[in-house]
Amino acid sequence: MTAITTESETNLVRPQHMNRPMGVLTALVTVGAMLAGATGCAAGLGGPASSRAARDGVIRFTFAPDPIWDYMHDEGIVDEFERDTGISIETSATWDEFGLFAGGHADIISSASFEVPGLEEQTERETVVIGRYNTERSRIMVRADDPAASVADLAGKKIGVFTTVSGTLVWSALVKQMHDLDLTGGQDFDLVVADIQNLSGLLARNEIDACICYPDLSVNELRAGSVRPLYDGKSSADLFAELNAPGHDGPMGNVFVARKDWAEAHPTEVSAFLDLWDRGLTEWRAHRDEIIERYPQHFAVATPEDVDFIKSYVDDHDWVVDDVRFDRKWADDEASIFDLMRRTHVIEGDVADPRFLPAERADS
């Protein structure tokens, strides 16, 4: 029988949020913003969270450090939005979005879509998904000289993960669906929990046999050709769509989640918030290389060679969606990740789907 190994046995370092105990029913809860793959502080999300109660004409937005938001802030787009709409945005940057949400200090945060039920359970607040942002982009990688063609060839080997929940849950469901193997149960694989930014390096150094890694945190090894992704480089979102929801772009690594009561009482603010983020997505498409160059820390790159590599990579594998709004069909397809996770026993059968709030563009 294999087991889940931690840094106490391997001298590896876990992310701080992994120190919180999590049971089966709360396994969907992690810091969703970790999927942004960034470090450091954001220029446009400074200051402590608002301690005021919700009020009209104000959006209390808590978000992890993010390059598109920084760009909109630095280019004056957020200021322009506030002048044109009369709506102010009180922002704070934190990796602990869930904590501020639980404390009632945020109206909108980000989370992976598959973490929303856990968010509700932990915070005891009803939520609604109001917008989408980026897809779950992790890949399963092996060393370049490893002959493995799929996860089925890795049975019994060490697989590095940054958490046994979050995106690992999606891969667990996919591995069960594709290969009838149990990724996280300690039977078929030896999971090694390590710091998210060290995984591809550990793989290249032969300390683990594979990893669930983010491409933007694996630039050095990918550029050097020491590691390669399985499944033709497809992410968990790519494979999920291919197998379960053709044409879909999820599951989402980040959606925008609001308190249900706040969203129902503030439709104008919700619509304006989505308009602002549609502007942000437009700016990303128009100035993507410039944004990567200006904020390389958000992509875990520093050298010109790594910056050029991630720009080229994102050209072919952009995980940012084209439109923040979604329709009912998209919501139903996104919710089907829960059908898969229940069917493969990755989550309990009584875990409910998130609530989604489809919306049309104001000018449609």
From TrEMBL:
Start and end residues of each SsuA/THI5-like domain: 128-290
Transmembrane domains' residue ranges: none
PANTHER family: ALIPHATIC SULFONATES-BINDING PROTEIN-RELATED
Protein name according to UniProt: ABC transporter substrate-binding protein
Organism: Mycolicibacterium arenosum
